[in-house]
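README: folding subset

This subset contains proteins for which both the sequence and a predicted structure token string are available. Records are stored as plain text. Below is the entry for ATP-binding cassette domain-containing protein (209 residues), shown exactly as it appears on disk.
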Amino acid sequence: MLNLENVVIYRDDKPMLQLSAEVAKGEVLTVMGPSGAGKSTLLQAIAGQLQAPFSVSGQIKINHVAINDVSAHLRKVGIMYQDALLFEHMTVGENIAFAMPDNSHKNKQMKYEAINELLAAVELDGIADRAVNTLSGGQQARVSLIRTLASEPLVVLLDEPFSKLDVALRSQIRSWTFSQLKARNIPTVLVTHDNDDALAAGGDVIEII
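--- output ---
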């Protein structure tokens, strides 16, 4: 569970966004609003990536434990952006393996099998050895999702990850993404300008000015 308790985002000590919310396991909270309202900055605060001139007050909790003072790499928060941001010098499988916790599998064979199972879950069987620059935009988006899930996150943040996909593909990838997150009971925060994204997410919607 993700709890945002009286969270206020500041820019140069001036409040720009304030909210309280609870996101249960398998639920998606959608945050909508105009550019510059602080939506992506809120995700950075949750992920522990906030930098000056921004700051945050209030409590950010995962499973009832405050994480405000926890380093970003220890928060177990996954984040997906508009771009897939895959490592082009690595294969698909190597990209996914990079995200996996070091102690998640006993040996390389078990890790390889786990990678293939993740790929099969989004209908990408047999591409573990492919170079990422040979994949279509939709395939890259699915690999990005799998890499995020492979890190075993407690919370996932989505920063308009569907906005660069064409309309037909956007609907398909969006459905895949939400179904995978809900199946794994991961609380998710989605930032978007698209009402269709919010409808597909199916959870609470917060609109900020």
